[in-house]
Known about the structure:
Bound molecules: flavin-adenine dinucleotide
Distance between the termini: 22 Å
Mean pLDDT: 96
Strand order of the largest sheet: 1-2-5-6-7-8-9-10
Amino acid sequence: MKVTEHLAQATETLFTIEILxxxxxxxxxxxxxxxxxxxxxxPAFIDVTYHREEHVYKEMGNGMLKKYVTRKRPGTVGICxxxxxxxxxxxxxxxxxxxxxxxxTENMLIDLDFLGIHNVLVLRGDPVKTEPGFVPHPxxxxxxxxxxxxxxxxxxxxxxxxxxxxxxxDFCIGAAGYPEKHFESPNLDTxxxxxxxxxxxxxxxIVTQMFFDNRVYFNFVELCRANGINVPIIPxxxxxxxxxxxxxxxxxxxxxxxxxxxxxxxxxxxxKQVREVGIEWCAQQCRELKAAGVPCLHFYTMSKSExxxxxxxxxx
Length: 316
Ligand code: FAD
């Protein structure tokens, strides 16, 4: 079923999760065990992230370095298919511009269509770690709205380099939204302008970056509506888990930590105590969001289920 159908048919707030593919060489059963512990909350759908290639330099033994291009977390498409077969839950593979030509993307989408996977979350993708900014593939897309246009075209039967119209695909397309603005955007208004372009290109739902202050989400939804962005906006949530998160989350995700949460975490003697604070804070956020009638609570599990399970026990 499509995300939009799940949301339209829901009689109460849905529980959904995002997982990461295992690191290359790791066993998929560890991931399944994490998902197993969350199945009692009946996730309506499960997102699976896509990870860009990385550049690794290895010593050649003669003083020279050789550059390798490798993916540390491959397998998004296979994991989506495996989850749909094993749990009968809809999956949402993330589809990114970075590292893909338009033809690579088309072929991936054909695979997804054949596998019965009809939801995608479309993203530009982050820069490769060793590059200072996002560099598009020479035959790929620079921004998510262009990739959305390509998929919308496939939904109309338009494939690359084909003269005649082919069998249309049937993808329900999602896009990312940033309540505290995307880090490259000069301001929230500009970011909203481009978010609207993604919706006009065919995005039918938005999933937000994580946030720790619900006012940020409520304000974002209000601004979206005022700017004519009327698709469902799914809030993304993550319980804070370590002392290090106080600095790492703002650094990597460009978000604010509310002062009350910072003070509570700063009082903790170890990460065990931080996890208790993080669970309580996130559960409180969820209760408020649920009371406000959000369509769905979407948890960034980072493929670790225990904290999300403890939050969900209090909320669902
Ligand atoms: P875009 O919408 O393309 O926007 C990028 C920037 O360019 C923004 O500042 C925007 O304002 C601006 N912009 C947009 N369109 C235009 C335009 N046409 N012209 C000029 N400027 C424009 N990354 C991964 O690599 N893999 C994942 O699986 C993944 N999952 C994610 C899931 C969620 C819910 C979120 C919120 C992020 C995820 N990311 C993932 C991170 C994401 O790829 C990065 O944040 C990336 O830097 C931006 O992606 P985007 O799709 O929002 O980009």
